[in-house]
Write a structure and sequence with these properties.
Layout: E1 11-14, E2 17-26, H1 27-39, E3 45-47, E4 52-53, H2 58-62, E5 69-75, H3 79-85
Antiparallel strand pairs: 1-2, 2-5, 3-4, 3-5
């Protein structure tokens, strides 16, 4: 039997602080985004349907652990920085016609 499709909340309390979901995406893609975020100094966590994962569990990935969709979360206070690092921040629409 396959696990039910995962839905992840947009905002959660994790370790006592508010965290926001950047996206729900396949595990391998989420781990790549986590590497980019970490390189820029942004903390992130992955939520599978079964658990939270603060570190990249390479052994789990290599041995065929859960590779379906996960929620990728960052602390709310680091959201603008995370969006900028991933190129997901909305550019100022007033700058669109300047050149």
């Amino acid at each position: 039997m396959s696990p039910a499709p995962s839905t992840f909340e947009d905002c959660v309390l994790y370790q006592g602080d508010p965290w926001v979901r950047l996206d729900t995406l396949p595990r391998l893609l989420a781990e790549g985004w986590r590497r980019t975020l970490s390189g820029g100094g942004v903390v992130s966590v992955v939520r599978t349907p079964f658990q939270w994962s603060m570190g990249s569990p390479v052994i789990e990935i290599e041995t065929g652990g859960y590779m379906g969709d996960v929620g990728l979360y960052v602390p709310e206070v680091q959201l603008p920085e995370a969006l900028a690092l991933l190129g997901l921040d909305d550019p100022d629409p007033t700058d669109a016609n300047q050149g």
